[in-house]
UniProtKB/TrEMBL annotation:
GO terms for biological process: copper ion import; intracellular iron ion homeostasis; iron ion transport. This is FAD-binding FR-type domain-containing protein. Residues 88-272 form the FAD-binding FR-type domain. Coiled coil: none annotated. PANTHER family: FERRIC REDUCTASE TRANSMEMBRANE COMPONENT 3-RELATED (PTHR32361:SF9), FERRIC/CUPRIC REDUCTASE TRANSMEMBRANE COMPONENT (PTHR32361). Gene3D superfamilies: Nucleotide-binding domain of ferredoxin-NADP reductase (FNR) module. It comes from Penicillium arizonense. One of its GO terms (molecular function) is ferric-chelate reductase activity. The keyword rRNA-binding does not apply. Belongs to the ferric reductase (FRE) family.
Length: 434
């Protein structure tokens, strides 16, 4: 209830009430906030993310500006002090992201007469795999990627250049040469194991930010010239990812240079090296979550521990990869490149499945691709039971559709388990209590 005491005439009081009603913009603000809530529903965000993003930003600004107008009727704008913090937080967030973008994508080298390096990107579309392979050389040399991390990617020189999309890093390497040289490199050109000093090796644990790779007998000058190259696999759907494919298709070679900016890294590394057995179950481009851990295992298994005391030595005795993809071509491409070194080891095994191609390629020695999908529940039960009977620890990493991981807690419950996100760890002591 609002009680107004005034010595003015009724006409004056009526005029003041009209000012409160008109200036307050109550009805308009209510409508804007209702639209804001409706466009934030999960189904709308998933179906039309770009439209949601634009509507959310515009309506949020309108709501905030409307709040200032809504409280302007009060003497001295006494309520604005509650609104300015929201503006300050938003501005600081934008500024920090701009600073981070500049940090990740530019580098000024004073030793080269002020030469400014910026991020360089080459994209290649594989029509058979229906995947865009993105190779990014960051402008800065200060990035220290680790398994399990992801980056936000921007393409600023577009009409919707403010959009950013998160992508898990699939692999990375340290190469010597000009930044303009971004031709795809296979592992055939990089050497064979066990000398992993020439392979696209990964950094160690999240705490190891100093020793990124084994550079062998490289001189200090050669080490200075080592450039980080990040690999991303992008499945083109709608919106921005489809536009990336179209950019590649405009080139006869399906390869093009792109102005991509990256922001990151974000995410944590799961310590799979502390377990004796590792099972990785991935689908499609989810292979990006598994390859870094596999290559990290290769590096840790041959690490010179007397020279590098920062890393933790691996306890892994066997790694099993189960990968289901739509196209055989994608499986073969990753197997020839990033997984090639792992196939030459006795502690690595892989099972490949294709859901779209009815027949597997028989011309690849050592690579068997089966049609259909694996029976995940029996697979997990079998590996968990083996770990329990052997008294060893087991880590299970899964990156699948949202419905599939629900079977893992139920499956592992019968043998005892610890569940954390999409990573599962099974310890012998837990199994004994189950």
């Amino acid at each position: 209830m609002l009680t107004i005491l005034s010595n003015d005439s009724g006409k004056s009081l009526e005029g003041n009430y009209q000012d409160l009603r008109v200036v307050g913009y109550f009805d308009k603000g209510t409508i804007v906030m209702i639209i804001l809530l409706i466009t934030s529903l999960d189904r709308i965000r998933i179906a039309t993310y770009e439209s949601f993003l634009i509507a959310h930003i515009v309506l949020s600004i309108i709501t905030l500006v409307g709040c200032f107008y809504h409280t302007v009727i009060f003497e001295g704008n006494e309520y604005w002090k509650y609104l300015w913090p929201s503006v300050v937080i938003w501005v600081i967030d934008r500024l920090l992201r701009i600073v981070r973008l500049c940090y990740c994508n530019t580098h000024v080298s004073l030793s080269h007469k002020g030469l400014v390096k910026t991020t360089a990107t080459r994209m290649t579309y594989d029509e058979g795999a229906d995947v865009v392979r993105m190779e990014v050389i960051p402008g800065t040399s200060s990035l220290h990627p680790s398994p399990g991390q992801y980056y936000f990617l921007y393409q600023p020189f577009r009409l919707t250049g403010w959009e950013s999309h998160p992508f898990t890093i699939g692999a990375w390497s340290y190469e010597t040469g000009d930044q303009s040289s971004l031709a795809p490199t296979s592992l055939d050109q990089l050497g064979k194991p066990p000398d992993v000093s020439h392979l696209p090796l990964l950094s160690g644990s999240s705490s190891d930010q100093d020793s990124l790779t084994i550079l062998g007998d490289a001189s200090p000058a050669e080490k200075e010239q080592q450039m980080l190259k990040l690999i991303f696999w992008v499945r083109p759907y709608d919106g921005w990812t489809r536009n990336l494919r179209q950019q590649c298709l405009r080139s006869p070679s399906m390869t093009t240079e792109a102005g991509i900016l990256l922001e990151g890294p974000y995410g944590d590394t799961f310590p799979v090296w502390r377990y004796e057995s590792v099972l990785m179950i991935v689908g499609g481009t989810g292979i990006a979550s598994a390859v870094p851990y596999i290559q990290d295992h290769l590096r840790r298994s041959v690490q010179d521990w007397e020279r590098d005391s920062h890393n933790e030595k691996t306890r892994v005795r066997d790694i099993e990869l189960v990968w289901t993809a739509r196209q055989t071509a994608f499986i073969l491409d990753v197997s020839r490149r990033e997984l090639k070194s792992a196939f030459d080891r006795d502690d690595f095994s892989a099972s490949f499945y294709t859901t779209r191609d009815s027949t597997a390629c028989m011309n690849e020695p050592g690579i068997e691709i089966q049609p259909g999908r694996p029976h995940l529940q029996s697979l997990v039960m079998s590996r968990a039971a083996d770990a329990c009977s052997a008294g060893s620890s087991l880590a299970i990493l899964a990156l699948l559709s949202s419905a599939i991981p629900n079977l893992f807690p139920i499956t592992l419950l019968s043998v005892g388990s610890i569940f954390t996100g999409d990573a599962f760890s099974l310890e012998p002591d837990d199994a004994a209590e189950a």
